[in-house]
# Entry
Amino acid sequence: MRSDREERIKERAYAIWLAEGRVHGHHQEHWHRAEREIAAEETVGKAAGGGTPRRTSRTRAAAPSKAGAAAAPKRPATRRSTTKKS
# Structure
């Protein structure tokens, strides 16, 4: 059975592999990079007093999402009068 930390590293390594174009033969490099990133997150979380950091969508994907830009509602344009006041 894998620990939660190992599972997070596995998911991060997979996301790195996807982000780099699914190039085969770099699995150890992706795994070690994922280990370093997870360790850095844990260090920051412990330094802030939070213990184990919470999992977010950011820990699963290496590429930024376009969904955030479309979610914000747009304000309607205001109409201004074009007539001059005397």
Summary: Residues 4-61 form one domain. The helical segments are 4-19, 27-47, 57-60, 67-71. The two ends are 81 Å apart (CA to CA). Confidence is low (pLDDT under 50) at residues 59-73.
